[in-house]
Amino acid sequence: MTPHPLRVLLLASVLALVAAVSCGSDEKKLSERGVGGEAGANDAGGQSPAPAGESGGGASGLGGADAAAGASTAAGGADGAGAAPSSAGGVSGSDAGGAGGSGVDPIVDVGTGCNPPPALPRLSATAASLPADGLVLWLRADRGVYATDAQRVCAWADQSGHRRVLLAAGQARPLLEAASLGAQPAIHFDAADSALSVAGVLDIPPTSGRTYVAVVQLVSTYARFQSVLQGEAKTAATYMGIDANTFGTSGGLEGVYTTSTSYDTTLPTSATPRVHVMTISTMVPGTETVSAVDYRVNGATQTLVRVSGKLGNLEDFSAADFTMVGNGPSAILAEALIYDRALSSVERAAIEEALMARYGIP
User: Fold this and answer.
1) For the residues of 19-52, what is the DSSP string, one character each?
2) Do residues 208 and 283 make contact, with C-beta atoms less than 8 angstroms apart?
3) Exposure of 311 by Cβ count < 10 A (0-12 exposed, 13-18 middle, 19+ buried)?
4) 178: alpha, beta or left, given left = phi > 0 and alpha = psi -120 to 50?
5) Domains along the chain?
6) Of 102-111, 189-198, 207-216, 315-324, which gets the smallest average pLDDT?
7) Which residues contact 293 (CB under 8 A, 6 or more apart)?
8) Is 262 within 8 Å of 309 (Cβ atoms)?
9) What are the phi and psi torsion angles at 5 (to 5°)?
């Protein structure tokens, strides 16, 4: 597969964008509005280092001169290392928790011209037939979306109860579509640098298992798109996430990316909506990836085949410092969830059934 060229942003442009965001650069200012900084995360509106591209190939879509249709906030450098995702953190206390469904998220100032979402109650995982235990991020496009009058998305507020807010990470904001996947709202990431991100990895311990879920419709079936991604900024490849047309792919296949190594499935990419569930049983360094990762698409377990990277073992994830959705063009994301544990097969099946029913996926 021929890699797509990556749109590389100048550092000055990224910093200028952040300076324009009026949510403020100090954590105290955000806390006064009801959203505190995540422990260990950068201040809201501040910058941490951006993920770098794979040398010569542009891993994870966040840098590299020849990234495979990846993309987001890189600001130059031989491997695309540069400025990082802006972020708003989360709060702890009585409002935090995995179930959501109580209270109304605070309105956060995310920039001039960005309209707050309607003041609706947070979603309930239980009411949506989703596991609540361990849910640390829940994004659904009918809630918590800050957008301009032109429906360009500035930020997306978490519904898990942790009150994290993901901000537009590049200059190109994705587009909110009112009736998209299954006639439900969804966000169209229609540019290379239209990802949304938050600093930190949602307080998930580095060796802990985790589960990523995404409801995605690819628009370009040969462009690289990472629906859910966590990793370390300014590294060559310390990332973990769901990755269509992953780095070094043989072309047009669904896949995943784990620390420094990419994997294809035998499932061709498609322009029809799909539910993706990636479960990592452990992140202990040295563990063989294929024994630790289960990847399912529309309820069917996929066979992973290593296509590039090191020896196929998990690597140290302790320095991981960002969480991102919608990395790369061009795809539509309706819903994304992250759990701080490996869900059971019964729980995964329940998620798949609930989401496939909601979005009319056969």
Assistant:
1) HH-TT-SSHHHHHHTT-PPPTTPPPTT---EEPP
2) yes
3) exposed
4) alpha
5) 125-358 (2.60.120.200)
6) 102-111
7) 256, 258, 263, 278, 279, 280, 281, 304
8) yes
9) -70, 145
How far, in Å, CA of 320 to CA of 40, rounded?
11
35 contacts: CB under 8 Å, gap ≥ 6 = 44, 88, 89, 90, 91, 106, 108, 163, 165
pLDDT tens-digit profile of 168-188? 877 899 999 999 999 999 999
Which whole-number Å values give the CA distances from 281 to 22, 44, 99, 287, 339, in the listed order?
40, 31, 22, 10, 12
Q: Does residue 354 or residue 70 have the better pLDDT? A: 354
Q: Which tens digits make up the pLDDT trace of 311-357?
A: 999 999 999 999 999 999 999 999 999 999 999 999 999 999 999 99
How many CB atoms neighbour CB 229 within 10 A? 27
156 close to 165: Cβ distance less than 8 angstroms? yes
Contact between 161 and 98 (Cβ < 8 Å):
yes
Phi, psi of 291 (to 5 degrees): -85, -15
Q: Which two tokens stand for residue 327?
A: 């990395």
Identify whether 31 is preceded by a cis peptide bond (ω within 30 of 0): no
Q: Which residue has the tokens 């906030």?
A: 73
